[in-house]
């Protein structure tokens, strides 16, 4: 994957945000984000859409382990045991976003955007996603190709696409 223009078949970020917004508005739900590797890109994309205050409640940028613990309540022992880039931490981040926001929906992302920081077990491009949707907790891992910008953009788009699927 490269950071070039999207293919004609791939929806734009703004189109994905619009879809998520419509689905949230229909349910009268609010959304929160808990972001690590994207550094607020999901929140920024959401608030680029006029009227987002009707469905977007807040975003947590928790880049450091301490921020994950202090702002979201992620247990430091959990991070130490599994690492910040893990299923367990992504799930805890999503749960923490719901616990610390007035929202029914949360998306959490934690990953290795690169170009450094990767390992054999967690290579650059590894991203864990956590989703809380109406009380249901779902997580998944994706491995994206490309440079730092490409990994972060792919993470943003996947988070929105998957959230739209879960809300539909």
- The second-level CATH architecture is Alpha-Beta Complex
> Strand share of the residues?
15-25%
What is the mean predicted local confidence, pLDDT? 94
Strand order of the largest sheet: 2-1-3-4-5
Q: How would you classify the helix and strand content by structural class?
A: alpha/beta
The shape, in one word, is globular
CATH class: Alpha Beta
Domain count: 1
Helical amount: 40-55%
| Contiguous uncertain segments of 5+ residues | 1-6
Tell me about the biggest sheet? 5 strands, mixed
Q: What is the fold named in CATH at topology level?
A: Maf protein
Radius of gyration: 15 Å
CATH superfamily descriptor: CinA-like
Specify the oligomeric state.
single chain
Through-space gap between termini: 27 Å
If helices are DSSP runs of H or I spanning 4 or more residues, what is the number of helices? 6
Order of helices and strands: HEHEHHHEEEH
Number of strands: 5
